[in-house]
Amino acid sequence: MRILLDTNILVDYFRSQRSSRPKNQRQAYCCQQADQFIDQSIERGVELAISCHTLKELLQYKNISAQEEKRILENLPLMCDILDTNKEVAYIAGLLSRHSAEYREHHVEDCYIAAIAIAYKLPLYTRNPDDFKYVPHPDLKIVVPYQYEADVTS
Hints:
Elements: E1 2-5, H1 7-16, H2 25-43, E2 47-51, H3 52-59, H4 66-79, E3 81-83, H5 87-98, H6 101-105, H7 108-119, E4 124-125, E5 142-143, H8 149-153
Parallel strand pairs: 1-2, 1-4, 2-3, 4-5
Helix pairs in contact: 1-2, 3-7, 5-7
């Protein structure tokens, strides 16, 4: 089995690897869940993949430390494949964004992540399925592996 991880799961995972404490209960819960989810997936032989756009999102924040950047760049290729945007992905992303101003203007990276899931025929594991609601696509399979309780009830 092969799955595509959304950026938010990897953000939680890499936060769980930091020596600093999580900022709040929600962050602590998500970090713990991401760590368990990724470890269990690897133990079960699940092939993890990410979009090259997820790599961009992980590295884009100006307050990322050199140590954090190094940890991401060293560990990410060891735990998952990084899938490229090719002509098919670009075509699908173009179709998705044509039908959604949200994908054109505010969620460009999510549009490409969805297109990669569709093109590579992979289920997309995300903590935030609302990021992918703008253009429903029959071949986009969203899976929420964990969610903070308050996020579900609100």
